[in-house]
């Protein structure tokens, strides 16, 4: 491991935080799905996760818009950036879906890359209804 | 746009609701590594501006002037996740001499085990804004968790002006750390003015005010003292008026710089930052416009005060009451409540919201027959 250069990611076991060292190589080699898009919004419940996935996109020469804590600021910025994909977890996608009546352009995204999605059929159906134009891609669960 | 001496300058208002600089983005090309997205927005839900900012040119400056920034374990505490990703991405730049980087999001800052996270990381450098670092210190102090910052050698601080009270607090709670301030604006990534220790030896009273320019700067419409509005030029913005007042002096420095920028606050006192909240003169004016029946004129003094174990915001408001307000038994309370309820000072919170959670003290309202002449054109000011 490149001990000289590491992004120390805060991960939670239950609600107990600990630090996990992530080198550029670790980040680059993560499986975050196929890149079919150009302007992704990265939105995870954990900002640590959003930043790490953002770094992964940088390794692929894709410019990410990282979500902020405030959903409306995130949505307004996403509309301005003209996002064509959302990379995130199900709960964060649900927050965007709820905001779609205020930001109808977001319903037009072409790709959803979803981590941590529960297997219940209701989740896929919910996303399909909220983002009818989107192709759904699942990626592995985030690390603890 | 404002045209001054034949140059058309953009202003913040021109950018509102737009996406600037996106034409630089070529998906899949290596040049993407030097691009960052920045989002700026007003306090009360104004449309944000999305800027795609190139660091290709300023990276040299950042990595030269801020080389030490990444060289030791660096703790980053910034208000925006987009800023955090920008600094982590720069940290991984092959040209940077980096060690370890940790950023704290709101979840970590509010977590009961915040001290454990910092203790485990043992930062030697910290990069933050005045208000967020102040919040971090308050939180750690109340949990006996300041030991995690014992190894900090340098505080790189940006954002608002560092008041004397808050500077003293930083020096007391992180005594081994040298404080270095830089000057930046949210529309530009990487800073506008750089810290220089030699500069403060020459101008000892100008800490947090004197910088070496990192970008081509000029002063427009200077007064007899040379103070005017700071204008800068970037690839994305072109000629741009910052809204900040300043003075630019040509003077060689031992560090190799040839100019010094003295930042003198806002050009028209339109924004005041205090404990992480932002007072916009336009919003304050709107509030008092709704109180026209009761208030003829007003003046706000905003300051940071040291409360029990934490820094608090405080607003003292002098009003010239109308006969109607004078006739009211509870006129002072009426104005105070109106201000608390209606004055939005963060994206989601009013002054009253921050009073309830003990970030601000209750506003103090006093009546005056007439406002002093000195505040004729200024309705709001930060005082130390």
Automatic annotation (TrEMBL), chain B:
InterPro entries in UniProt: AMP-dep_synth/lig_dom, ANL_N_sf
Domain AMP-dependent synthetase/ligase: 87-230
Highest taxon above the source species: Bacteria
A Pfam family assignment: AMP-binding
Annotated coiled-coil segments of the chain: none
Protein name per UniProt: AMP-dependent synthetase/ligase domain-containing protein
């Amino acid at each position: 491991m490149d001990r000289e250069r590491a992004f120390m990611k805060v991960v939670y076991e239950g609600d107990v935080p600990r630090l996990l060292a992530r080198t550029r190589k670790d980040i680059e080699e993560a499986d975050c799905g196929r890149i079919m898009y150009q302007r992704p919004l990265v939105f995870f419940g954990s900002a640590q996760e959003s930043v790490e996935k953002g770094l992964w996109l940088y390794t692929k020469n894709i410019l990410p818009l990282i979500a902020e804590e405030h959903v409306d600021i995130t949505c307004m910025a996403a509309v301005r950036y003209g996002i064509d994909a959302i990379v995130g977890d199900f709960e964060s996608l649900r927050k965007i879906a709820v905001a779609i009546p205020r930001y109808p352009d977001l319903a037009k995204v072409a790709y959803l890359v979803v981590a941590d999605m529960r297997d219940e059929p209701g989740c896929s159906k919910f996303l399909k209804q909220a983002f009818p134009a989107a192709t759904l891609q699942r990626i592995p669960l985030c690390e603890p | 746009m404002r045209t001054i001496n034949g140059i058309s300058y953009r202003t913040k208002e021109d950018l509102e609701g737009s996406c600037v600089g996106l034409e630089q983005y070529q998906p899949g090309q290596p040049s993407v590594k030097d691009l960052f997205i920045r989002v700026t927005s007003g306090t009360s839900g104004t449309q944000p501006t999305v800027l795609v900012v190139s660091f290709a040119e300023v990276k040299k400056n950042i990595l030269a002037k801020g080389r030490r920034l990444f060289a030791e374990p660096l703790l980053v505490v910034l208000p925006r996740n987009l800023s955090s990703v920008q600094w982590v991405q720069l940290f991984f730049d092959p040209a940077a001499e980096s060690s370890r980087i940790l950023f704290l999001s709101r979840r970590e800052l509010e977590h009961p085990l915040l001290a454990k996270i910092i203790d485990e990381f043992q930062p030697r450098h910290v990069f933050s804004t005045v208000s967020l670092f102040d919040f971090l210190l308050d939180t750690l102090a109340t949990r006996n968790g300041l030991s995690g910052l014992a190894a900090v050698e340098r505080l790189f601080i940006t954002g608002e002006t560092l008041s004397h009270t808050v500077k003293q607090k930083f020096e007391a709670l992180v005594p081994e750390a040298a404080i270095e301030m830089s000057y930046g604006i949210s529309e530009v990534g990487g800073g506008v003015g750089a810290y220089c220790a030699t500069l403060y030896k020459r101008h000892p009273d100008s800490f947090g005010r004197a910088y070496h320019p990192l970008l081509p700067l000029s002063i427009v419409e200077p007064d007899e003292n040379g103070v005017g509005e700071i204008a800068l030029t970037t690839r994305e913005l072109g000629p741009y008026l910052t809204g900040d007042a300043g003075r630019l002096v040509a003077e060689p420095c031992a560090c190799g710089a040839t100019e010094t920028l003295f930042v003198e606050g806002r050009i028209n006192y339109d924004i005041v930052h205090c404990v992480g909240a932002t007072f916009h003169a336009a919003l304050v004016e709107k509030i008092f416009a709704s109180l026209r029946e009761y208030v003829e004129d007003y003046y706000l003094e905003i300051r940071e005060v040291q409360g029990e174990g934490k820094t608090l915001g405080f607003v003292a408001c002098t009003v010239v009451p109308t006969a109607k307000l004078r006739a009211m038994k509870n006129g002072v309370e009426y104005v105070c409540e109106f201000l608390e309820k209606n004055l939005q000072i963060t994206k989601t919170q009013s002054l009253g919201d921050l009073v309830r959670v003990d970030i601000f003290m209750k506003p103090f309202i006093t009546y005056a027959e007439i406002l002093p002449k000195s505040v004729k054109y200024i309705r709001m000011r930060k005082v130390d």
